């Protein structure tokens, strides 16, 4: 099963993937946790370009194609092989992030983004997407506190330095995507305490895994 975690900056995706991965492994599941961009050697180089605040002038279309290049390599070399081996795959961001950031927030044509996804990745989509939702202002505040404390890389702050209105468009985009695909998305209140968020995610994934086992 391919499970993606989505949300604005400061939503807690990375923390929750780590904690949920630990729980699932403890429960006997074989899995990998990964991320976009940057989960491969090539992807790490692409990530450095995309998230470096010095690259604030990067053209929006170039940004999009760098994300697509990372994704094509990531899915082909990491995600599909893991799924073929029967592993769970927990991924920090995927195509919904492209729709939210480059589409809803940057203003690139949504139809073009979907066409590229079909062309490059045969419309390969997650089985389950967990959207950690919270107000943009709160998420940004959390993110900058983590950066100030050294918990996050200062060299990867290109998106954090976007204006609040940009992040509000990202959030609105995510919520719209969730409304369009309710069978795949689950929206989680990221304002809850960390343990509450983890418990909710674990319950959702456990129920989905049980349903898959019953169907098989």
TrEMBL record:
InterPro entries per record: P-loop_NTPase (IPR027417), Thymidylate_kin-like_dom (IPR039430), Thymidylate_kinase (IPR018094)
Residue ranges occupied by any Thymidylate kinase-like domain in the UniProt entry: 5-201
Gene3D superfamilies named in the record: P-loop containing nucleotide triphosphate hydrolases
Keyword Lyase: no
Catalysed reactions, semicolon-separated: dTMP + ATP = dTDP + ADP
Entries under Pfam families matching the protein: Thymidylate_kin
EC numbers: 2.7.4.9
Keywords: ATP-binding, Kinase, Nucleotide biosynthesis, Nucleotide-binding, Transferase
One Gene Ontology cellular component annotation held by this UniProt entry: cytosol
GO BP annotation list: dTDP biosynthetic process; dTTP biosynthetic process; dUDP biosynthetic process
Binding site for ATP: 7-14
Single GO molecular function: dTMP kinase activity
SUPFAM superfamilies membership: P-loop containing nucleoside triphosphate hydrolases
Protein function: Phosphorylation of dTMP to form dTDP in both de novo and salvage pathways of dTTP synthesis.
HAMAP family reported for this sequence: Thymidylate_kinase
Matches recorded under PANTHER family: THYMIDYLATE KINASE, UMP-CMP KINASE 2, MITOCHONDRIAL
Family: Belongs to the thymidylate kinase family.
NCBIfam families (UniProt xref): DTMP_kinase
Protein name in the entry: Thymidylate kinase
Organism of derivation: Desulfonema ishimotonii
């Amino acid at each position: 099963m391919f499970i993606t975690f989505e949300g604005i900056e400061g939503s807690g995706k990375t923390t929750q993937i780590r904690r949920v991965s630990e729980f699932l492994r403890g429960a006997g599941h074989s899995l990998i946790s990964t991320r976009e961009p940057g989960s491969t050697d090539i992807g790490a180089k692409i990530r450095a370009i995309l998230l470096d605040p010095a690259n604030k002038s990067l053209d929006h279309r170039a940004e999009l194609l760098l994300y697509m290049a990372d994704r094509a390599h990531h899915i082909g070399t990491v995600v599909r092989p893991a799924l073929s081996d029967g592993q769970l795959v927990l991924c920090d961001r995927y195509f919904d992030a492209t729709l939210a950031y480059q589409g809803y927030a940057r203003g690139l044509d949504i139809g073009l983004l979907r066409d590229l996804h079909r062309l490059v990745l045969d419309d390969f989509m997650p089985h389950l997407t967990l959207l950690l939702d919270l107000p943009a202002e709160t998420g940004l505040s959390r993110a900058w506190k983590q950066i100030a404390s050294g918990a996050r890389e200062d060299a990867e702050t290109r998106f954090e330095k976007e204006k609040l209105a940009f992040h509000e468009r990202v959030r609105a985009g995510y919520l719209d995507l969730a409304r369009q695909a309710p069978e795949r998305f689950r929206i989680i209140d990221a304002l809850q305490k960390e343990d509450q968020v983890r418990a909710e995610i674990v319950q959702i994934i456990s129920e989905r895994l049980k349903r898959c086992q019953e169907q098989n």
